[in-house]
Specification:
The protein is an alpha+beta fold. It has helices at about 15-20, 30-40, 115-120, 155-165, 250-255, 305-315, 325-330, and strands spanning about 5, 40-45, 45-50, 60-65, 85-90, 90-95, 145-155, 170-180, 185-195, 205, 215-225, 235-240, 280-290, 295-300, 320. The chain has 7 helices and 15 strands.
Length: about 350
């Protein structure tokens, strides 16, 4: 395999070497990149890298010698977890991930992840491994309690090509979220840096630190709901990701004062205002891209799971009406018209 070459841009300046390497779509996990540094497989400006912890600078040229060996089938235990597959061919899979499913092994999740399910479905030797042996097939991730469409790769070539589409922002991913409060504009863009919180390592936060990674989210308002006696109202939004930072939509919605309904990490912890949800109201509903191997257009949409649909229908009688975008999109989510009485408004007289 030829060496992987990359030049450090402004987004990577000041990052640890292992962190910068793992942020590259064609390179494996951070721990795997650290091992490559320790093995002498990484050169900075023509000289072997000294430490995985050294900082990279703008303009640094980095070369990585990737190993030829492929992992053997069975290294990650296969687990028979049902997969809701919407598209599959010899190169890739598009599936709808159920809430509660972690994408790849992590503390507390060893053999109950999407990666384990993909190994069971395809076999470890028939998945892309550029993200590391513990992330076979993974191209991008959804949070454990976020549901909806995502892509997995069956070959290294397809995995790299799909990650390139994400990097070039031509793999179109759109999410639907219900947020707290009244969002006045019909459209908006949120552009910030995002970094791990210095107060709570489980959380991400908007940051102007030079090491923070750039994050861009655009949103379109679909429907607004009047405030009730015990809440400040809601808005249904479609969000479009131009970057894929950890918890990006959830962090950005909190940043603009409209946390995602049901979000235990970034929300307000008000059980009644969370409409009975036990997870965040966030669903990857649409994905669109040109197949990197066949050239065909792959375009899929996914209706809301029952828990999110029921929560939305429970406030249908307080709808202030849908925007033009909402008229076009919400019906595709499997939700009735504003004011339908299929759901009971859980906020009134209680």
């Amino acid at each position: 395999m030829p060496p992987y070459n990359v030049m450090v841009g402004i987004e990577g300046e000041g990052m640890r070497l292992d962190s910068f390497l793992s942020s590259q779509p064609a390179l494996p996990s951070r721990s795997a990149c650290a091992r490559l540094v320790e093995e002498g497989s990484v050169r900075m400006n023509g000289t072997p890298a000294r430490s995985k912890a050294e900082r990279v600078a703008l303009g640094d040229r980095i070369q990585v010698d990737l190993p030829e060996a492929r992992p053997q089938p069975g290294e990650l235990p296969p687990t028979d977890i049902p997969l809701d597959i919407r598209y599959e061919d010899d190169y890739l899979i598009v599936l709808s991930k159920q809430p509660g499913l972690v994408c790849h092994p992590s503390p507390g999740h060893v053999d109950d992840t999407l990666a384990n399910a993909l190994v069971a479905h395809c076999g470890a030797g028939h998945l892309g491994h550029l993200q590391g042996d513990d992330r076979p097939g993974i191209v991008h991730r959804l949070d454990m309690d976020t549901s909806g469409l995502m892509v997995a790769a069956k070959t290294d070539e397809a995995q790299k090509a799909l990650q390139d589409l994400i990097r070039l922002r031509t793999l179109d991913r759109r999410y639907v979220t219900l947020v707290q409060g009244y969002v006045a504009p019909d459209e908006g863009t949120i552009e910030t840096g995002i970094a791990r919180s210095t107060r709570d390592r489980l959380r991400m936060a908007v940051s102007d630190d030079p090491a923070a990674r750039a994050a861009i989210t655009t949103f379109t308002t679909l429907e607004r709901f009047e405030a009730g006696l015990r809440d400040e109202g809601y808005c249904l939004l479609e969000c479009h990701l131009y970057t894929g930072r950890t918890h990006q939509i959830r962090v950005h919605m909190r940043h603009i004062g409209h946390p995602v309904v049901g979000d235990a990490l970034y929300g307000r912890g008000d059980e009644r205002a969370n409409l009975g949800l036990t997870r965040q109201f966030l669903h990857s509903w649409s994905i669109r891209f040109v197949h990197p191997m066949t050239g065909e257009l792959v375009e899929l949409r996914d209706t809301l799971p029952d828990d999110l649909r029921h929560a939305l229908e429970s406030i249908s009688t307080s709808s202030m009406g849908r925007t033009s975008a909402g008229e076009r999109i919400v019906s595709q989510l499997g939700v009735g018209k504003p004011g339908d009485n299929r759901g009971k408004d859980s906020r009134s007289n209680s």
